[in-house]
Amino acid sequence: MRLTPQPLRLTAVATALLILSGCAALQPATAPRAAPAATPPTAAAGGGAASMAAAAGAPGAPSAAPGAATPPAAGASGPAATSGAAPGAAAARPEAGAPRPFADVIRDAKVDDGYFPIWRKDEKVWIEVPADRFGQPFLLTAGISSSVGERGLYGGQMGNGWMVELRRIGNTVQLVAKNTDFVASGDPALARTVRQSFSDSLLGAAPVASAEHPQRKSVLVDASFLLSDMVSYSTLLESAYRLPYSLDRGNSWFESARSDARSATLSANLHFVTPRIPAPPLVRPPVPVPTPPTTTPDPRSLFVGVVYSLQALPQQPMRPRAADPRLGHFTDAYTDYGLEMKPNLRVHHVARWRLEKKDPSAALSEPVQPITYWLDRNIPQRYRASVEAGVLEWNKAFERIGFKNAIVVKQQPDDADFDTLDASHASIRWFVGSDVGFARGPSVRDPRTGEILDADIAMSDVFARGARRVASEDLGSMPTRLTALGGTLGHRHDAFCDFAEQSADEAAFAFDLLEARADLAPDSPQVEALVQAYVKDVIMHEVGHTLGLKHNFKASTTVNRNQLQDKTYTAANGVVSSVMDYTPFNIALANERQGDYVTPTLGAYDYWAIEYAYKPFAAEQEPQELGRIAARSTEPQLAYADDSDADAGPGGGIDPYTNRFDLGNEPLEWYRKRFALSRELWDRVQARGARPGDDPQRERRVLASGFRQLRDIPQLTAKYVGGMVVQRDLPGTTGRPTYKPVDPARQREALRFLADNVFSVDSFRFRPEFLASLSPDFNEWERGQPVSIPTLVLGLQTQALDRLMTAGTAQRVLDLPAYLSARERPGALTLNEVYGTLQSSIWRELKQGGEIDGMRRNLQRQHLKRVQALLTKTSDLPADAMSLVRMQATELQAQLKASAGRTGLSPETRAHLQESLSTLSEALRATMVRG
């Protein structure tokens, strides 16, 4: 039996005031009455007595939403047929404060019938809630249709998703997000305990706007409770600008509303304001302060479009499919306290669309319901064919498991009355931003089963011109804003897919180098073909996400160097074994054969991952069949590793064969090749020189493009040192070790590569006349300053230092002997060898004598700064590592003493040596500072 809480008896005025305050259970009844909200001249609807009560989770990462209950189909008995007054005698006079009769409220209003009928009259919008819809779960999603266009605030983005229910508490309707993260299967008493232990969340509340309909027993709810900051956009604005933006309800309104048998959609235009823009500080603060919005006419005011969808969930839940860590699928996970005998109570279901054969007995059958992607009308005509090709490429994988035309593509007409961000249309849509570009492939799912119910791919305009614009504009600020040459363009890889953004840098580099070689003219058909192939590549990647596939950053290691140069091979198999990798442009050296520049088709891993997620099985056969499929993980072409494995920062991943934007079965060789390609580009552009008619920033852009190709190479190379090759096998299935130390010879080769390339001045020499020609765009008020090559180079070098001198690297190198046999241990790389090689390569001038270049002095200072910190401050560095640091520092101190008195050196070099000796001597004498 369901218990309905009995509301407190309150006067009508007190009830309204409590609702206005946001949550009747928490706010005092003495809150002042809000003034009536003004409706803007262009508003379609607005105002209303109730406001939402609480914002919900982090925007941009849609959580799933379970639910059941299929709504009755709208028909002749729906609201459109019975909207008039009830037949019979006139209704009795309502009690004071009671809702008005249904017919009175909607008199002269128009209705859009459906799952939740939507009524509209002038500026008013009401949602009709059938009696049986209260207490029943459904899906609420909120997409961002329009925004500011900078700093992560972009239009065309799928937003939050919740499994919600409507609760009626007296004359108040609450919109409640259900907690789906914790369940207890099989035990009603324990399930009750779980419900009592973990709270739901209130998203909004509104007063009942009408009495019950005489026949349907439904009521009206003022929809203006959705004119609220339900998506917590004010927090995003504050994060971007550090200004207190708040929602202006009076100037927010509904632009459109529609309903059908499965969902209701309301598109709102929300106005955010901040009372004033503070004056800039007189003294530059130690931490940079973000500027106010630069893309709006007045930074105090901006509009954000939100598309709300109230969607029915499947009456018959899809049979869930258990996830396997040997493959990379997104999952819906929850904690099941009913699994008392399992050490881990987490349950993971594969995220996938419901795909069933029309003819289960046929070897190849069309699906009952295909996966349909709508191309938004805002996609440029130039790219639509390539976008469609990227989507339909996935049909090859579905055909292999028995589905014909599993995926179809439809074009949204220009005069369509629906928004592709609504819950009824999986879509691909374009957006632009003034400062960045990326692509995302999120989805909303039923967490009971993992069934994907909606997906909206957002693709930024980063192709061709866009890629070059971003590259050129960023160089001027590189010395002050970039740590890793591109840091301001990058985003956390675990936050969303930034493949398109970084791939745009790859495209810019490819076009610049091929143009410099005279292989491609800027406006040639070959360039257009390359751009279209690149668009298809990015779309394949993002569609893969919306089919449920995670990144696979080991796919690049399955193709060797000879295969990358073989166009016949790459055309049939791709340049990687999965489009879910982050793939750089496959540019051959000048003396090599050229394969496909970008991957043109699905790889072996993609077919395998689709088979596991979507191949139909009888329920009793499924566990065994899935185990058989997953057991193929030992096949070389099916290598898999995800974002966590690929993270390469100072404390990041440990497998040097799992990376973003590399190619070939030996990443170290790829890094060597990329250094050569960047050097080639720089040499060619310097030899060419500036010519009349050139873009003023051409040379500046090309310089930046070359540096971007190197931005992650130092830390990725340093991953070899103390590195472990990781295999994702289940216990007892293959006999392969989970962790295998990288070959010591490769570790030593990585150290030599850093010394000979990253730490070498010769890798970064430029002609003075070239540097002097790097002009900014003088038409712009904000323009770049002269480029500091030493600062850019130091940004690369410190990556390697930070990785090699961390506690994690030290501990792994010290632990390596434990993973080796007695025969292998004598050849193992030691930590003393690591520190000694690093120190001798950085300070080699102390033994060679002679002048120390300015870039080398910068590198030496950074090394000494880290040594000083380790000697004087507490850290988590292992004890043996601390002893080795001190021993190496003592040796360096002796070398500095011998060098400091040399004659014939420049004042800069003599001062540098003296200061370094003083700093190191003080550090060796200092007492440890306890943190």
Mean pLDDT: 85
- Overall tally of structural domains: 2
Helix content: 25-40%
Terminal CA distance reads: 58 Å
Which strand-content bin applies to the residues?
A: 5-15%
Decide which structural class fits the backbone.
Answer: alpha+beta
**Number of DSSP strands?**
22
Shape: globular
Round the Cα radius of gyration to an integer and report it.
31 Å
User: How are the strands of the largest sheet arranged?
Assistant: 8-6-5-4-12-11-10
Largest sheet: 7 strands, antiparallel
- Count of DSSP H/I helices: 27
Low-pLDDT stretches: 1-78, 80-91, 464-495
Domain DUF5118: 99-145
Domain EcxA zinc-binding: 525-848
Keywords: Hydrolase, Metalloprotease, Protease, Signal
Protein name: Zinc-dependent metalloprotease
Describe this structure in words.
- This protein is of the alpha+beta class and 931 residues long.
- The chain has two domains: 255 residues, no CATH class; 437 residues, no CATH class.
- Helix content is 32%, strand content 15%.
- It contains 27 helices and 22 strands.
- It has a seven-stranded antiparallel sheet with strand order 8-6-5-4-12-11-10, with no helix packed on it. Strands 15, 16, 17, 18, 19 and 20 form a six-stranded mixed sheet that branches.
- A hairpin with a 2-residue loop joins β5 and β6.
- The radius of gyration is 31 Å and the shape is globular.
- The N terminus is likely disordered.
